[in-house]
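pasting Collectin subfamily member 10 for the record, 282 residues
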Amino acid sequence: MSRLLMVWVFLAIFSYVFASTEVCTNALLPGAKGDQGETGEVGEQGKLGKNGPPGLPGVSGEPGLKGEVGPTGKMGPFGDKGDKGLKGFTGPAGLKGKTGTTCDCGRYRKVFGQLDVSVEKLRKAVQFVKNVVLSVKETEERYYLLVKEPKRFREAALNCKLRGGALAMPKTSTINRLMADYISQTGLARVYVGVQAQGRDSNGTGRYLYADSSPLQEFAAWSQEEQLQPGSSPSTNSSCVELLSTGTWAHVECETTLFFICEFPKSRRRGGGGRGTPAPAS
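structre below
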């Protein structure tokens, strides 16, 4: 009973203390607001912060002006062949032609016969000019002209080229024999031909090329003296080749002045002539 009385007295005192409007405190009350101070100096720039998150995409700008046409590119590969198109409509029939006249076949046959005779005479005249005036030899594929102008090997090759041909190349025994007879008939002993040494092969033997840069193959007509040294290659000064009237080949110094034979391919045009005909010797 005494405990309950003490609790009641404590609660009564506690309620009285907190119910009082005047509270004693040691806190200081704020004073009146002061005047605004002067602006301070600008401080140093702070450190660069971390990159923030990307912003939202902006609005698309207006299209720019059309640029100039660029350079043409390389041609691309050809495409596949397309399908065959549909057949077109049949066109209208043409106008009827005029009635032909009766052919006088006998008169035309006579005219053509005279033309054949004239063509044959012209062919014989051209053959005479080639064989007698120009002293040209020929095969089914080429003409051969012996030029009686003493020149060094390089000058002879250039002279044939300016005439529209090349230094004669005896690539077969038949052509070699024809050229040798040609030399003998003109009373000469030797001439330049289009064969020249170009160093050594891997096995140490001499390597030879024709005037058209093709290699010397199976046929060769070296003299007996040349065959005694099959493994030797001629010196630089003696790397050119001459053809003797006997039909054999021999080395000769390229600075030696000799007559020479040019060859010319026959033209494929009807009637001969054209660029395959050799220019006359001066």
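The CA atoms of residues 200 and 223 lie 20 Å apart.
Residues 230-235, 269-274 have pLDDT under 50 and may be disordered.
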